[in-house]
Amino acid sequence: MEFGAGTPLEEFRGQVRAFVAAHAPGYKVRSGVRSPENAAELKELQRWTAELYEAGYLGADWPAEYGGAPDHDPLRAFVVGEEIARARAPMPASGSSLAAHALIRFGTEEQKRRYLPRIRSGEDLWCQLFSEPDAGSDLASLRTVAVRDGDEWVVSGQKVWTTNGHWSGYGYLLARTDPQAPKHKGISAFVLDMKAPGVQVRPLRELTGTSDFNEVFFDEVRLPADAIIGAPGQGWLIANASLAEERNGVGASVVQLQLAWKDLVEDARGVTVDGRPALECDDVRQRLAALRAEVDACELLAHTSLARWNAGRERAADAPITKLYFSELNLRIAEYALSLLGASGVLAEGDPDAVADGRWQDAYLYARAYTIAGGSSEIMRNIIAERGLGLPREPR
Amino acid sequence: MEREVFDADHRQFREAVREFIAREITPHHERWEKAGICDRSVYTEAAKQGVIGFNVPEEFGGGGVHDFRFNAVVAEELAAARAHGPGFNLHNNIVAPYLLNLANDEQKARWLPGFASGEEVWAIAMTEPGTGSDLKGIATTAVRDGDEWVVNGAKTFISNGIHSDRVIVVARTDPGGGSRAFSLLVVERDMPGFTRGRNLDKLGLHAQDTAELFFENVRVPVANLLGKEGHGFYHLMANLPEERMSIAVSAVAASRSILDETVEYTKTRTAFGQPIGSFQNSRFTLAELDTEVDIAQVYIDRCLVALVAGKLSHVEAAKAKWWTTELQQKVVDRCLQLHGGYGFMMEYPVAKAYADARIQTIFGGTTEIMKEIVGRALGV
């Protein structure tokens, strides 16, 4: 089933596909959610972002005065995500659109005027300053503080796993403003100028060998009073509301799985197992077919939950179920790909003999980020159990 | 669970090996990972301490110990320390048996002293581009010409490929084919026409040099024929139990090591106000892994006893190899997940363990090949 097949969405899909083919950056895109690897890629990403907004393919749900389309169809955003994924083109920075949604819903007019046009033009990338060394899955226990001092807020603490932190002009920050309040209630949201004195960004080196995430340190960073988004104590609400707007990635994820499965079959054509072409081995055929069934199941799962979301009937467990199933299946596909490639499966990118220039090796290693980031599989199962099934809360 | 397979000598040896690794390997390993190769001097240092060469007869400068349990101790300690750079297992467990069992007296006198002292690094070259686990597909040829064999072909995925001074090359000496088509020839560093390709870019094991080797009209004196002409395939088969047990023993030790470390991590790392190990989900995962690693340990120790007694069949070794390495994959996989985001950072041992473990189910015969061997032995 192709989502939106047989509807005007298909016509739209054709337009988007042609647009992506004509405008997408040409640089190599790795598996998962990654940062540009150099200034040239950053520039390309910024141009690409600007063109997507300009064409109305991004930001259609924004207020009309900031470039949105009043009669927009929310399902179009999924089609855009799917087509970008299908072309293996880079996704615009998710931190930017997350921040945009927070500002649109909770920001002042002045904030919207100041920041939204520069998000649309691609000039400013935004990073999401949520996770901390001791507050990942347990985000609400974050300890970065913002203390009011006269007309300013003084921020101290540390964030981690900050995608694009090293390329961002601004950060969408969650910080604790009321240490006395219950943990979810003492958090506020801020706009943080990444170039402000006291901000230090340190790229991490990850399992993949690349640096997509950063640590960000705040040493008494002074923010103006109007840097707060919404009211003090509203941070948790704002963060959840903006995250809830971010469903566009679901369609893209399914397309990634479909591509991965096709790649797997394609790459298996050149592989021999015990002297026979791999595709003639029973075991290989059984495994490939079983994985295909799972990819189709994941697609249906994603599309069903999207349809409910679009109809305003999303269930609490929908997004966690899809994320859990996607990320675990994605890992299984990559694991199987490496087994299937046999000895050549250990050759990584850069080696001239690496299959598909090491795409599978990168996908295998990055697959571990998917099972952990954005709520680990364990957290997803907890949410499904507690909010979805109404089971008692985990005993603590 | 207490292990019964070792006696006091082995335990004492283990202490020495552990100390050696901590002193001579661990402090340099990160640098070797960046360089893609370890320092050559670690071989001579290891030989001085008896970490390699102990199974070579004393008359050739070795330790004169013939007991695979010592080999297992070295393999286990290297795995526990995640010290994959130096190819000691290759030397002790794979090359040594070939030389000890197949070399004639003249060859032993010529080769064993340098091997035992660690001054000469050895490798064995079976795999070729495109052959993988299928040795019958070997295309490297050796043609007799007077007192020499003229070798032509290419090998790949050769551990110690860059460091090696002497390489046991599996070559086709009878174009007619069949299982008597292969022989083992020892190619030496300075022989004209023997060249090395690049040090391969790999998913893991970054400190180990793994390379391509090329042979273009390399003239190898007949004195360098190892074992009997046409018996190469049988020579390879004879050593399979040791090779596979070497990998299996390492797999269990690596699993135990990363599991212990993960248990410690889950005791200190807190989320939602409590150590993450105290969540039932984590506790059950750790309990399962701990149980399975214990089972694996008992099983592998039993296999070790059989191997030392010369009673471990290649089918039994194939079972041990695939099952323990698949267990290792599962253990590192679960342990990485328990580390959360930190499992994704290179500076955490579990991230490296994850990348390094991947090869275990592939080299020395893939899991699929092991299952073929076991399955065929069942008569199906």
Describe the fold and architecture.
Chain B: Catalyzes the dehydrogenation at the alpha-beta position of ACP-bound acyl chains. This results in the introduction of a double bond in the lipidic chain, which is further transferred to the epsilon-amino group of lysine residue in the mycobactin core by MbtK. The complex is a heterodimer of chains A (396) and B (380). By secondary structure, chain A is an alpha+beta fold. Chain A has three domains: 8-92, no CATH class; 126-232, Butyryl-CoA Dehydrogenase, subunit A, domain 2; 247-388, Butyryl-CoA Dehydrogenase, subunit A, domain 3, CATH 1.20.140.10. Chain A is built from eleven helices and ten strands. In chain A, strand 2 (145-149) and strand 3 (152-159) form a beta hairpin. The mean pLDDT of chain B is 94. Chain B is globular and about 80 Å long. Chains A and B meet through strand 9, helix 10 and helix 11 of A and strand 9, helix 10 and helix 11 of B.
Q: Topology of this structure?
A:
The complex is a heterodimer of chains A (396) and B (380).
Chain A: H1 8-23, H2 39-54, H3 74-86, H4 94-106, H5 109-120, E1 126-129, E2 145-149, E3 152-159, E4 170-176, E5 187-193, E6 199-203, E7 214-224, E8 228-229, H6 235-245, H7 248-268, E9 272-273, E10 276-277, H8 282-310, H9 318-341, H10 359-370, H11 377-388
Parallel strand pairs in A: 1-4
Antiparallel strand pairs in A: 2-3, 3-7, 4-5, 5-8, 6-7, 9-10
Helix pairs in contact in A: 1-3, 3-7, 4-5, 4-6, 7-8, 7-9, 8-9, 9-10, 9-11
Chain B: H1 8-35, H2 41-48, H3 68-80, H4 88-102, H5 105-117, E1 122-125, E2 141-145, E3 148-159, E4 166-172, E5 182-188, E6 194-199, E7 210-221, E8 225-226, H6 232-238, H7 240-268, E9 270-271, E10 274-275, H8 280-308, H9 314-338, H10 349-357, H11 367-377
Helix pairs in contact in B: 1-3, 3-4, 3-7, 4-5, 7-8, 7-9, 7-10, 8-9, 9-10, 9-11
